[in-house]
Structure formats: C-alpha cells, structure tokens
Amino acid sequence: MKWFLILWAGPVLLLSGWYGLSYYDMSFGFFMLTRQTHDLVFQVYGNILGIPPETIPPLVARAIAFDSLVVFAIVAFRKRKAIAAWWQRRQLAKSVSLPSEESLSSAP
Questions:
Q1: Which of 3, 41, 44, 70 is the most buried (most CB within 10 A)?
Q2: Which phi and psi (to 5°) does residue 92 adopt?
Q3: Rounded CA gap, 95 and 39, in Å?
Q4: If we measure between CA atoms, which residue out of 63, 42, 61, 40 comes closest to residue 53?
Q5: Can you give the pLDDT at residue 93?
Q6: What count of other Cβ atoms lies within 10 Å of the Cβ of residue 37?
Q7: Is the predicted pLDDT of residue 98 greater than 60, yes or no?
Q8: Span 73-94, average pLDDT
Q9: Closest by CA position to 8, among listed 50, 70, 95
Q10: In this predicted model, what pLDDT tens digit does every residue of 41-81 receive, in sequence order?
C-alpha cells in the first residue's frame, strides 16, 4: 500500500511542482521551468490533441482530482475496519463526555 501511494503521489507532485514553478516563471536558471517552456509544452499538447492549449490545465486538474478520489477510496476500503473502529470510539466518546443538564452551573 505504501508503494501504491508513493507511485501515485510522485507524478502528481512532480507535475504540480513543474506547473506551479513554470506558470509563475520561477526558473532558477533551468530552461524547463521557464514560462516559455510552459507555453510551448501546452501548445504541443494542444496541437496533438486538437484542442486549445488553455483548456488542458483544467482537464489535467480534473483528472488528478478523480484519480485522487479513486486512490483514497481504495485506501479507505482497505482500512475500513480501522476506520469503523475509530468512528465507533469517536461516537462513544461524544456520548459519554456530554454533561448533563443538572450539572451545569446556573451562575451568570
């Protein structure tokens, strides 16, 4: 499960890091992080896909969000017993720790 999460998070972090740095042109001397490269990459992908380049980032963001939901659903399914036990402990602690009306102070 650890490798599954690493293999999912690695490319997501790499892509989002590159996108953020190149979008704001924080190149640190690397050509790959310039705004010119950013625009060129999306222009090439737009030409390959036959869509305007400015529509690609929202599509990628939606794909990452959907993939993240799938990954978290898989993790939650695998850890469902631990999550259920945590939820029961939480509900039990809520019901036990509530003060009764008789023990509340009547001081202003």
A1: 41
A2: -65, -40
A3: 56
A4: 42
A5: 82
A6: 16
A7: no
A8: 92
A9: 70
A10: 999 999 999 999 999 999 999 999 999 999 999 999 999 99
- Residue 23: both structure tokens together: 């979008």
| Token digits of residue 4 | 């599954």
| Two tokens, residue 36 | 């010119």
The whole-model pTM stands at 0.74
Which amino acid is located at 82 in the chain?
A: A
- On the 0-12 / 13-18 / 19+ scale of CB atoms within 10 A, 22 is buried
Q: How many CB atoms lie within 10 A of CB 33?
A: 19
Please list, in sequence order, all residues whose beta carbon lies within 8 angstroms of the beta carbon of residue 67, skipping any fewer than 6 positions away. 8, 12
How far apart are alpha carbons 49 and 79 in whole angstroms?
A: 39
Structure tokens at 87: 């939820």
